[in-house]
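Q: what sequence does this backbone want?
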């Protein structure tokens, strides 16, 4: 099997805390090839959107968290998708397969 393609996304990042800074440093040291260069920051707007039952980008579209997720989506969309040469098992048509969720690429 081919190695799994992935992107490591630092989340809940708070530059004011030593734990966040050290964790990000460790991610850079150990996963540099797969690490997204941005971060998803701690943002109280996440909690507000969750309470309202809405996505953050709908409830608070211009917060730091929303903007960070937009940058992440932009980054992931720039990664070329690898087309699998694998064929579905006999008797299964491609349209019968569930839609593949892109876990990200590195």
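A:
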């Amino acid at each position: 099997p081919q190695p799994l393609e992935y992107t490591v996304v630092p989340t809940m990042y708070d530059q004011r805390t030593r734990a966040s800074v050290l964790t990000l440093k460790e991610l850079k040291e150990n996963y540099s090839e797969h690490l997204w260069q941005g971060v998803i920051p701690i943002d109280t707007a996440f909690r507000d959107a969750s309470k309202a039952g809405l996505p953050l980008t709908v409830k608070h579209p211009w917060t730091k968290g929303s903007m960070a997720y937009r940058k992440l989506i932009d980054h992931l969309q720039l990664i070329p998708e690898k087309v699998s040469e694998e064929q579905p098992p006999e008797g299964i048509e491609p349209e019968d397969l569930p839609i593949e969720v892109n876990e990200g690429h590195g």
